[in-house]
Design a protein that fits this description.
The structure holds 2 protein chains of 2 kinds.
Chain A lengths: L2 H15 L2 H19 L7 H7 L2 H10 L8 H27 L7 H22 L1 E8 L3 E4 L3 E12 L5 E12 L2 E9 L5 E3 L2 E17 L5 E4 L4 E4 L2 E11 L2 E13 L2 E8 L4 E2 L2 E18 L3 H24 L4
Antiparallel strand pairs in A: 1-14, 2-3, 3-4, 4-5, 6-7, 7-8, 7-14, 9-10, 10-11, 11-12, 13-14
Chain B lengths: L1 H22 L8 H23 L7 H22 L4 H20 L18 H29 L3 H38 L7 H19 L8 H24 L8
The chains are: A alpha+beta, B mainly alpha.
Chain lengths: ~325, ~260
């Protein structure tokens, strides 16, 4: 390929991508395919689609990627083309404005730059974001990567007078390499805690039933649902505590017996009943908090994109107003 | 009680507007905008009253959102009426008044329970307030552009078409940055603070993005001569229909994170 042909090809490609018509067509394609995707349940098992839709429709959904639309080529390819289109238009408009003797109106350029940064941030988030979920009871301590340690000092569940949830507050202590960063930080919904490159969010709560048992030496053990007591020929799994709704002091403790990986049925027990050498001494309930730990390398990039987008939008509006175009 | 009186005020405004439209006079009606203003103030007073009762800005359920939305539309129509005296404005204000009345009628239907409930933890954020109020203020401008676009497609007179086209453009040019800030930017910041993710591709988020993309296409269609006029008008109409679907359709047809409003 000669140098001239190469330059021609680059010029043609540049001209193609700086087209506003191309931007409109890509926007409409992304919109149209996105509309279809909202009517198709996303990220289900293949069997769901084959069982729910006819052969042709399910084949169409699975072969085009509409079952996982935002990770599919029908979304990624037009979006990538739109990104290139937007980048070329932004550069073209910006350099054009600088060269020509026209009013310096950079609102749309800032807006477009913000949008490009936003998309880059979105890609960084998509490829690098990690999320973990932990359940903690009061007094519990967990280690996070980066030398951080999180201790749940208390968990409070506030309600309005009507009983409607008002707030969930996890008071935590955050340490890094043994040094206290936050002595007591209340993590609430809409008020996450920042720990290095991680953010910790109030996510949920559960009420756990606690069972107390004692051995012949009268040492008391605390059990959570799912924990096991070894017995002579197998093991007993503590399943749950069922309270009588009319009398909270009247309850039944449910255990399930397993021998050689085979369930031998459930047993209902009460206080003072025996399980092998152990005696049931009492029950309690404890709330545990559910915290979501998110690490998002795209967090600040997206934030910068959003800030630039906002500035660009209102600057464009202000400049149009000043130019009497509105 | 106040939304019912506001509904009555807007109905009276609509009747006066019809009367003047049928008279085919060039004179703008001298009264209906005061009824629109009274209706708007009553609706916004409802928002204030409920906000005091729940100790938070009352835009946290469908009823409150509809009251606020129709209040903003009525107020916007009042300002348009006192600022501009174009003949086409009579039809456009009438059409937009009808939209506000339909929204208010929906607010009194069973799909929008009136219970005064304080907000659940996820909704207790000033980002939510900015998200909802800005989105609805932007959408109030889109309502106007919807009616002007219908008028554009129906009108035969060149000057009236031009006026309608100009009104469509200005309404969207003002509404677009407000809607973008509210629905997308503040919404994303709120989502990040509440759930740890700016964007979750929840159906409501996807539909808000689709709506934004359509209005983006509209604004860019103004830069291409061959797309101006009819195609621009169709895009503005589609944009408003998507706005309404984002508000109602998604809530009832496509479950997701926004199931409360």
């Amino acid at each position: 390929m000669s140098e001239k042909t190469k330059l021609n090809l680059i010029a043609k490609t540049y001209k193609f991508f700086r087209s506003v018509k191309l931007a409109i067509v890509l926007i409409l394609i992304i919109s149209f395919t996105s509309i279809i995707s909202t009517f198709i349940p996303q990220n289900r098992e293949v069997l769901f689609y084959t069982g729910t839709y006819s052969v042709i429709v399910s084949w169409f959904i699975l072969s085009t990627g509409f079952n996982s639309f935002f990770k599919s080529l029908i979304f990624i390819v037009p979006s990538a083309l739109f990104f290139v289109n937007l980048a070329v238009c932004t550069i073209d408009r910006f350099t054009g404005r600088l060269k020509r003797k026209v009013k310096k109106r950079f609102g749309p350029d800032i807006l477009h730059a913000g949008l490009l940064i936003l998309i880059v941030g979105g890609i960084i988030t998509f490829t690098g974001r990690t999320e973990a979920f932990v359940r903690m009871e009061e007094g519990e301590k967990i280690s996070l990567t980066g030398g951080y340690t999180l201790t749940l000092k208390s968990f409070d569940f506030f309600r309005y007078e009507t009983g409607r949830p008002k707030d969930w507050v996890s008071n935590v202590m955050l340490e890094k390499d043994g040094q206290i960063i936050h002595e007591s930080y209340p993590i609430e919904v809409n008020r996450p805690l920042k720990a290095g490159n991680k953010r910790i969010y109030q996510s949920s709560y559960t009420v756990n039933n606690i069972l107390y048992i004692s051995d012949p030496a009268e040492i008391i053990y605390r059990m959570k649902p799912g924990q096991i007591i070894p017995v002579g020929d197998g093991e007993m799994i503590f399943r749950d505590i069922l309270a009588d709704p009319s009398d909270q002091n009247n309850f039944t403790v449910i255990f399930e017996k397993w021998i050689n990986d085979e369930s031998k049925g459930r047993r209902s027990l009460s206080v003072s009943d025996k399980i092998d050498i152990y005696t049931i001494t009492g029950t309690d309930t404890r709330m545990s908090t559910g915290l979501r730990i998110v690490s998002d390398p795209g967090y600040y990039t997206v934030l910068i994109g959003l800030i630039l987008l906002t500035i660009g939008l209102f600057l464009t509006y202000y400049q149009k107003l000043r130019d009497n175009k509105l | 009680m106040m939304p019912a009186i506001a509904f009555f005020m807007l109905s009276v405004a609509a009747v006066i507007q019809i009367f003047f439209l049928l008279k085919k006079t060039d004179k703008a009606d001298p009264l209906s905008h005061y009824f629109l203003l009274a209706g708007a103030l009553l609706l916004l007073a409802t928002t204030v009253q409920r906000s005091i009762q729940i100790d938070f800005v009352a835009v946290t359920n469908t009823f409150e959102s509809l009251v606020f939305f129709s209040g903003v539309i009525a107020l916007l129509l009042f300002f348009y009426r006192i600022q501009k005296r174009w003949k086409v404005l009579q039809f456009i204000i009438f059409g937009s008044t009808i939209v506000a009345l339909i929204l208010l009628a929906t607010a009194s239907s069973p799909i929008a329970p009136r219970d005064i409930q304080p907000p659940i933890p996820a909704l207790q954020s000033m980002w939510l307030v900015l998200h909802v109020t800005f989105a609805f203020i932007g959408e109030a401008f889109f309502t106007l552009s919807f009616v002007t676009s219908i008028y554009y497609l129906l009108a035969k007179d060149g000057e009236k078409k031009l006026n309608a086209d100009r009104l469509t453009y200005t309404a969207i040019a003002i509404g677009y940055p407000i809607y973008t800030a509210g629905a997308l930017i503040f919404g994303a910041i709120w989502a990040e603070a509440a759930w740890g993710s700016y964007w979750s591709w929840d159906p409501k988020e996807t539909w808000a993005l689709i709506t934004w993309l359509v209005y983006t296409a509209f604004l860019h269609s103004r830069l291409v001569k061959s797309l101006r006029g009819k195609i621009s008008a169709i895009l503005a109409i589609a944009g408003f229909l998507f706005t309404i679907f984002t508000f109602f359709g998604v809530n009832y047809l496509l479950p997701g994170l926004h199931s409360y409003g």
